[in-house]
# Entry
Amino acid sequence: MTLYEDLKWRGLIQDISDDKLIDKLNNESLTFYIGTDPTADSMHIGHYSSFLISKRLAKYGHKPILLIGGATGLIGDPKPTSERPMISKEEVERNFNGLKKQAEEIFGFEVVNNYDWIKDINVIDFLRDYGKYFNVNYMLAKDKVKSRMESGITYAEFSYMILQALDFMHLYETRGVTLQVAGSDQWGNITSGIELTRKKIGKEVYGMVMPLVTDSNGVKFGKTEGNALWLDKNKTSSYELYQYLINLEDSMIIEYLKKLTFLSRKEIEDLEEKHKANPHLREAHKALAREVITDLHGKDEYEKAIKISDALFSGKVKSLSKSEILMGFKDVPSFSVKEGELLIDVLINNSICQSRREARELLGAGSISINDEKVLDEKMEITKALAIEDEVLVIKRGKKKNYIGLIK
# Structure
């Protein structure tokens, strides 16, 4: 299977700027770039689903360059519905440094900053050397601009596509870049770069865009209740990422395996058969979690995520360390407990039970446990001997309600 055929099978090609690109992908060694703006100090899983193309093309002999837009990040790529809030130069620089380190660690390729070549262009040169090559009607026809015409778009945002086009031409001239790869929402910016390079220096460059990775409702991959899943494991733990991946909707899992892993066609088709036969075993989901987490954070982090998950769902909390418990129960209610405090007071004071009567009933029924051990005695005192690492108590009410008590 050629590279282009593999990309098509995986659903990773939505548009290419010229059919000549197919042969170039299959038989030449291209230098290409993919970029993002430093709007945060960590990438999220949506970046991973896009930037993974750099590793995929590199495996076939192409050379990736990752661009983090220190200049374009100060302007903001137009959103379809509203203007992006501007962020300070200091924040952009801080975010750039965070993303550069992360991109080098995860993807392992050269990282460049468009601030380096845009910062010294004065406004006269910008208008004469670049603005003159852009027809306003051409710019107005671009989808991102068109979608904002009713609500309004600032001149700064309107000029964003010129800056990105300038990047493409600059990277062609300085690093031999002949291809820009991006998500489909960047098609208008990419074609602007192709046009600028052709008009200004008479050279031909190419563009390729991938479909945005979404769920079955069209929501971008990695968006959970409005929160991003960060690639920084200190912001989103490997366990949290594992839980997200293992619980993805069944109807999309094979598509995600194609787009987000390097598993072969045969391996994915085998998983598809297993998934159809026994979806409850979630073998396809587990394979996705293994491949993504191992690629991002390494085998040890994947195994840690498995360990925490298995322990929490099989009543083996005591096998975990304090840090693993806090990771696994990151979003459950937590509170401080004094050593010597009576259990029944802990239950009432921290709203685990609403009254002494309810607490006694639940204790009598064996519905309260501490670190997976059922507790029946309402007069039991809280001691460090009960806790994990002398500090952590996982208090469970029934089968699903968990609370974390920290002995102080």
Observations:
- Residues 237-314 form a domain with the Tyrosyl-Transfer RNA Synthetase fold (CATH 1.10.240.10).
- The chain has a mean pLDDT of 93.
- The CA atoms of residues 41 and 95 lie 4 Å apart.
- The first strand starts at residue 15 and ends at 16.
